[in-house]
Write a structure and sequence with these properties.
With 203 residues, this protein is mainly beta. The chain has helices at residues 2-14, 113-117; strands at residues 30-36, 44-49, 55-62, 67-68, 71-72, 77-83, 110-111, 129-134, 137-150, 160-172, 186-190, 193-200. It has one domain (26-200). The longest helix is centred in the first third of the chain and has 13 residues, at 2-14.
């Protein structure tokens, strides 16, 4: 039995590093709240470390039209999680994306105004509180105290902006064995409104 366990450990570290169970670490729990005054200027960066204070993952949250060299953000706020470990065959642009996603916006890490004001507001997958279970962690995003403001700036790009509070909680979860977010059905679009009572697979 001990020989079998040893062989599995060797395989995890040398041959199949991308398998989810090999990506689990005991991490330092995180609980942070961010007060966003203007959604257009939101910029949230969180580094997840292991118990030896080594950086393992990074959570980045940005507003619509913010562009990284490898990623385009959209919506009121979009959060992604990337691995800070350089390994072959790893998923690194957004671990919160839907499995086999073909677009950057196919992620529950994207918070859209239409999800936060219609019947999606209290939805488990697309509402104001969302939980991701992956790579030995439970990650919960909460967006609350959402308020709309009139834009009085001369150089305004739109006639309104939003303020809100955003909390991020990351805790250890040994039962979270997925490599990325789980596959979920998506709200249907009706008259430019999202309907969470009617969903279908995004594929």
């Amino acid at each position: 039995m001990q020989k079998l366990i040893f062989i599995i450990i060797i395989l995890c570290h040398l041959l199949i590093p991308s398998i989810a169970i090999c990506e689990q670490y005991s991490i330092v729990n995180i609980k942070k709240v961010f007060h966003i005054i203007n959604n257009n200027k939101a910029q949230i960066d969180i580094v997840i470390t292991n118990n030896e204070s080594e950086p393992i993952y990074k959570i980045l949250c940005r507003p619509d039209d913010y562009e990284d060299s490898d990623f385009d953000y959209t919506g009121l706020l979009q959060c992604r999680m990337i691995s800070m470990l350089k390994r072959p065959n790893s998923v690194d642009t957004d671990l919160l994306s839907q499995p086999d996603a073909t677009r950057d916006w196919l992620s529950r890490g994207l918070f859209d105004i239409r999800q936060l004001t219609g019947n999606c507001k209290d939805d488990t997958d697309f509402g104001s509180v969302r939980t991701f279970n992956l790579r030995g962690m439970s990650i919960t995003f909460s967006l609350f105290n959402l308020k709309e403001h009139n834009n009085v700036s001369i150089n305004k790009s739109s006639d309104k902006y939003y303020s809100y509070d955003f909390s991020v909680a990351v805790i250890n979860d040994k039962n979270a064995n997925s490599n990325t977010d789980r596959l979920v059905p998506w709200p249907e679009l009706r008259d430019n409104l999202l309907d969470c009572k009617s969903k279908s697979p995004w594929r």
